[in-house]
Amino acid sequence: MAALLLLLSVCLLAGGVFLKDLFTAQTGDEYPTITDWKRSYQAEAEIAQALEQLQQSPDKASVISRGSSAQQQLALTFDGLADRGTMQRILDLLAKYQVKATFFVDGLQTAEDPQTVINIKTAGQRVENYTLYGMGKMEKLPVERLIKDFSQAQKIISITTGQGPNLLKCNDTQYTDQLLQAAKAAGFKSVVSSEFYLNATQITSFAAAEAFVGTLRPGSIVAVKLLRNAEPVINEQGLAAGAPAVDKQPGLKALPALTDQPETALIAAVERFLIVLNKADYATVYVEDFYQHNGAGTAKITPAVSGPAKIAALIRAQVAELFGSRTAYAAAATGDNQAREIKTIFTTEPAIAYTFGGLANETAVADVLGRLKELDIKATFFVAEPEMQKHPVVLRQIIADGHEIGIAIRPKNGETAAETGSTIRRNRQALQEQFGVETNLVKQPWGAVTAAAREAVASLECRLIGQAVNVVQSKHQDYTSADQVMAEIFGRSVHSLARGQIVHFRMDYYTNDKLIGDLAAIIKQRKVDNIAYATAFDNPASNPANDSQYRIKPVGEILSHTQLLYQYPVDPAAVPAHVSADRPGLRVDEANVLPEVFKRYIGNKDVAYGKSTLGFSKMEARRLDNSGLIHTGDNVVFLTFDDWGTDAAINKILYVLRKHKATATFFILTNNVLHNPNLLRAIAAEGHNIGNHSDQHKPMAARDPKTAGQVILQDKQEYSQELALAYKKLQAVTGDMARHSQPLLTRFFRPPTLAISKAGVEAVFAAGSEYIVSGSCSTNDYKAESVPQLVNIIKDGIYTKNGEVKKGSVVVMHMTDSAAYTAMALDILLTANEAKADADPSKFKVGRLADYLTEGYSQINRRQTLQLTAPAGQNI
């Protein structure tokens, strides 16, 4: 061990860890610029009609500024759009706290990210008009400009949502008579004015939230202004961006601390506000439920959703985006004869796809091809019909370089499925006859994909390709460096890309011909290469056995590896009965819970009476296990990982475990899992057990810093619902997976912060969990300051002071990005263990919890448990 640590120090010194305008001219005759939303959402007829209406009638739209003060209710609005991950977290919070909200979205952001707006509607929230750009001081604009702005935004939002907004809201604007007349002529019955604005930088505590809510009055309209980020990216959010969940007892701090990341501060402030709002017994209504009548408002309220319906609603909200392409990998068409747009391929393959479009700038294309050759990347190039005709030499060069070809379509406004289908057939024929290429990949590079386009793609048994990351934003045309673009595309919280994601580049848009090539290279370097386990002593570049590197491949190649594709969500019929979410949980209540807890709770030395065992008497707490050891007579230890992270963190752990032929149990915090189901599926695909770590990481009990007493953060029913939701998410991704006929999804639960309460364990068992596993060694690896320090901590958890193996020890580690040294420390420890002779009594085996926590296991009865026969292959 000493020699390995010395080697590590040398290696770290040697190498370390690898760790304008919105109205622009066209850049090619046949391929309009990305800002040509007017072509995709033509609104000339609507603008003309509104101008005519304005001349005929001086009527003004009414102003909604508040609702009825007779009832304890208010309206909540979100103005503008944040990045897609932040938007989904907001939707999750609204569903969790049963809050209604109205989202005012601007037209341009809706055109650039229609999926986020669709997600808002799918989650059951209202979508209204925030003008075309969300600009301020609109009262200074001429009336004709107002009409064009309102009408154009209305057209974009109507096409995207299938329903025209009824309300208009202008950002930081005085509602003059002229503006109200323009709004009425454009078809809006009312405009909205907010009396209160939630300032995330001020709502830094529950006390601040309570003070803010105290200023509100029944009937208030409260607005949250969201960050403007014109192009969204799908990644891991939440714990990956900050500190991991803590294993020791916290104070009463249910929400993350504010950081310098505005997205984190915003989410934390919104949740604090919603919690306090519920405590104040405010009901929420949509803004449209408020109306003005002689200065007195009123409102109507619909019943709140609760119980099982609440769980179902939250699941729908959280998976709405991913469900949109759930069967795209398997077939081009669905039951309604419409192709699904593939934005992320549901696969466990460690691969990412690059796609490119726009051949008009041949200089940029040549530079991109040169970069891809240098980087050994094969990509998919989507070409439109005019490009085949005008740039055949360029296209032949792309083909000669070994890249894949797909068809780019740009349906005209109102084009039928038959017309689009005719274009696709003609392009396929031209590619085959003139270039010797056959393809079934189709992409619409810009604009909302219509039902007619989906139908055309499906009818020809083609696949409709989208993107998870669109590198080009409308404001980037004149940017000069890749760093400028990277900062706005990814921000600081996106550590890496994810397996199965499709990244799209456009080559004929930037003024700088080399910018796309620079971006393709830098994205690979910073968001793909960093996923690999690449140390000075084990680097994929020098070690052929190191297979931790993600590859960049063409879309079609990834789709062709059908053995690695899967159906998401998993068909419930394919889930074994024992791990099905529909299987009833243990029937326990206050009267009979103790025998089950004594039998099924594997504790921790820090969980003791008066400290973290709320509801248990002193005598009962003494009978609870505090060893955290699994009963076994062998030198077996158990590796476990908590929370969630990005591919950059988790892939390194997976590689180290694979390298040493060790399997572990991953206790998943599910709040952000559905943003990256491929990563969860990949964990199980390598034979690791999947356990439940809750959805929101709220402990069963926490210490109130004011009283020093223990309190609950959720009642029994709420906690049971949260755990059931978390388990359903895990089942949706891994429920059909097994190894040696044993399901990989388990009914094991690790309590957040390791705290327990009597009511909480009742909820755990009622929600379907069979064993509660805390563990014998909490490494606090996310706080480790060096690899040697963490190696010693893990050793202390595995060995006694005499160097003997602590048989059955359960080591608690983390898979978050902040646990930076975990994979390397584990690699060193397992390497040293493998070097020992088999007869060495200090040599341990790595076991899986599922091989020991079987029917009949009892933590309180060691003798009975040791009589059980461990299954073959327990150390696999």
TrEMBL record:
<dbReference type="GO" id="GO:0016810">
    <property type="term" value="F:hydrolase activity, acting on carbon-nitrogen (but not peptide) bonds"/>
</dbReference>
<dbReference type="InterPro" id="IPR011330">
    <property type="entry name" value="Glyco_hydro/deAcase_b/a-brl"/>
</dbReference>
<protein>
    <submittedName>
        <fullName>Polysaccharide deacetylase family sporulation protein PdaB</fullName>
    </submittedName>
</protein>
<dbReference type="Pfam" id="PF01522">
    <property type="entry name" value="Polysacc_deac_1"/>
</dbReference>
<dbReference type="InterPro" id="IPR002509">
    <property type="entry name" value="NODB_dom"/>
</dbReference>
<dbReference type="InterPro" id="IPR050248">
    <property type="entry name" value="Polysacc_deacetylase_ArnD"/>
</dbReference>
<dbReference type="GO" id="GO:0005975">
    <property type="term" value="P:carbohydrate metabolic process"/>
</dbReference>
<feature type="domain" description="NodB homology">
    <location>
        <begin position="635"/>
        <end position="842"/>
    </location>
</feature>
<feature type="domain" description="NodB homology">
    <location>
        <begin position="72"/>
        <end position="285"/>
    </location>
</feature>
